[in-house]
Structures are given as C-alpha cells and as structure tokens.
C-alpha cells in the first residue's frame, strides 16, 4: 500500500520531469519561430511584441483590452476602428484615436493625411428622441395637484 508521503514524492519528481520536458520543447518552438521570422523578414514589432522583457504589447495602457486565450482559441477582445489617417511616406495608418503616432504629432491641420477624404460620405445626423427627465408626462398629469376652483 502506498503512503501519502510516497505519492507526494512521485508528484514532485513528475513535476520536475515535466518542467525539464517543457524547457526542451520551448527551445524547439523558439528556434522554429526565429526560423519563420527570418524566412518572412518579420520583426518583433510586426508581431506586436513588447520590447520590454516580460511585458506585452499595450501593457502600459490602462483599460486596454488584449486578446484573450481561452480553451486554445484566440479571441479578439475589441475591434480597432477603421483607419482615418495615412502617412504618405511609410503607408502607416492611424484611426484618430489614442496617442497620435510620431509622423502626425504636432500637425494641427491633419486633412492632408485623411484617407479618401473626398470619397468619404458625410455622416448623417438623425434627430434623437428627447428623453424625459424624471416622471413621464402621463404620470406628471396624474400626480399634478388639481386646480382649486374658486367658489362663485
């Protein structure tokens, strides 16, 4: 009959062996990733990796939503807006939200960088229904004090 102590010792040995196997597999994975990056000419920036060790892209932004890994499926937590501005020199784009990129910082009239400025349809502004504050009209009438009639 096995004892609790013997089983715990086996668990520790298995944990140690699992960590060694994990490290060996990681080395192979990293080598394959580097090979693919070299083959396709990719950089860490292309993969949106942080330049800080142990950090992740967007780690400095409060409230920034990141892709969520759940049950082996990558789900995008949010969708970025459509690009609104384009740098003619590099072709990089910006949605107009958040911190402006270096190529557009300090430029007050950004209309020259708009993407398809002439072909973009004007936004329609439909009138919105006015919201009542407090009580509804029917309730206001029902609870309004009745007008006193003066004796004739």
Outline of this structure?
By secondary structure, the protein is mostly helical.
Task: Give an account of the 3D structure.
With 152 residues, the chain is mainly alpha-helical. Among the domains are: 50 residues; 38 residues, no CATH class. The protein contains two helices and four strands; from the N terminus they run αββββα. It has a two-stranded antiparallel ribbon. A hairpin with a 2-residue loop joins β1 and β2. The longest helix has 37 residues. It is flat, with a radius of gyration of 31 Å. The chain starts with a helix and ends in a 9-residue tail after the last helix. 1% of the residues are buried.
Please describe the biggest sheet, giving its number of strands, its sense, and whether it closes into a barrel.
Answer: 2 strands, antiparallel
**Which residues sit in consecutive blocks of at least 5 with pLDDT less than 50?**
119-126
Helix content: 25-40%
The first-to-last residue Cα distance is: 107 Å
């Amino acid at each position: 009959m096995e004892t609790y102590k013997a089983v715990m010792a086996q668990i520790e040995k298995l944990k140690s062996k699992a960590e060694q196997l994990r490290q060996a597999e990681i080395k192979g994975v990293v080598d394959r990733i580097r090979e693919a990056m070299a083959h396709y000419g990719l950089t860490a920036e292309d993969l949106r990796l942080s330049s800080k060790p142990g950090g992740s892209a967007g780690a400095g932004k409060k409230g920034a939503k990141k892709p969520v890994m759940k049950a082996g499926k990558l789900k995008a937590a949010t969708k970025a807006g459509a690009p609104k501005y384009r740098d003619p020199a590099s072709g990089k784009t910006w949605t107009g939200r958040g911190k402006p990129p270096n190529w557009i910082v300090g430029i007050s009239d950004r209309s020259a960088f708009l993407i398809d400025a002439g072909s973009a349809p004007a936004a329609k502004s439909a009138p919105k229904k006015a919201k009542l504050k407090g009580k509804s009209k029917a309730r206001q009438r029902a609870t309004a004090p009745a007008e006193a009639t003066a004796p004739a």
